[in-house]
Amino acid sequence: MKKNNLIIIITLIVLLALVSFYLDSEIVKGVFLIRNAFLSDFFMGITFVSSEIIIFFGLTSLFLWREHKRKFIVPLWITLGLSALVSFILKFGIQRLRPYQLGLVPVLTILEKANHFSWNFSFPSFQAMLVFCAVPILSKEFPKLKYAWIVFAGLVAFSRVYFGLHFLSDVIMGGLIGYLIGMIILKVEKESKFGEKVYKKIIGK
């Protein structure tokens, strides 16, 4: 993607996040109105599949499957780890309460328990960061999977709003921050080839 186009897209996303910030409460209440058994089961499946462990091992396995792409495993791990760290810092720095904690919408008991003891703040959405941070590397190494992964990432992000775990601005900014982290790590890898060097050391070449 050309640099100018990327800057325009990022600017539009930031503007969208700012607008959504003022409409967050109304949006999360509106999304609540479409809740039903089918959608809840569907997005529970999305929530399970997008767990940190499954994403981590799933993506790692994908790169291990294609031998000449294994050099990107280390950059991928760094991208995921850095996204987790940045999310942790922002969550505890900003400490924005989740929609259900503010009493705007109810949340499923199982999800409330899962989000009560860890990372118990709303901004940004870690799940959105997690799935979008992998987009730059996947786009480069598995271009055929690019759009499928973006659709999946979008569903993950929407599921957080659907269940009242996050506001729309949380997932928009989470996705943007994650994507930018992925781009930075990919750029560093292109310039320094640290992932390739680590891979060669591991296999003894």
Would you give an account of this structure?
The protein has one domain (3-203): Vanadium-containing Chloroperoxidase, domain 1, CATH 1.20.144. It has helices spanning 3-32, 37-49, 52-65, 73-94, 109-114, 126-132, 135-141, 146-162, 168-192, 194-203. With 205 residues, the chain is an all-alpha fold. Helix 4 packs antiparallel against helix 9 (168-192), helix 6 runs antiparallel to helix 8 and helix 6 (126-132) runs parallel beside helix 9. It starts with a helix and ends with a helix. The mean pLDDT is 84.
Mean pLDDT: 84
Q: How far do the termini sit from each other?
A: 33 Å
Q: What shape does the CA trace take?
A: globular
Could you tell me the strand content as a percent range?
under 5%
State the name of the first-level CATH class.
Mainly Alpha
User: Count of helical segments?
Assistant: 10
Which architecture would the CATH scheme give at its second level? Up-down Bundle
